[in-house]
Design goal:
70 residues; globular; five-stranded antiparallel sheet; mainly beta
């Protein structure tokens, strides 16, 4: 299983989440206001970036992950 990578840049106010290898990013496009999708060369979403992301309290950003089997 791939690792999920989460990056929070306080200076840029961005939250970036990678589901796949960032090195294989081929294209990116705005999907919604303040949301950018990163795709590989096959068109699969491998990550997203939330622009203008600010957390309510300085210090830590908590991430909860749930896996659902189908």
């Amino acid at each position: 299983m791939e690792r999920i990578k989460v990056y929070h840049d306080r200076r840029a106010n961005t939250l970036t989440v990678w589901f796949g290898d960032p090195d294989v990013e081929y294209t990116c496009a705005q999907a919604a206001p303040d949301v950018i999708l990163m795709r590989d060369d096959r068109g699969r979403v491998i990550g997203f970036e939330k622009l203008n992301f600010t957390d309510a309290a300085p210090g830590e950003v908590h991430v909860t992950f749930e896996s659902v089997s189908t």
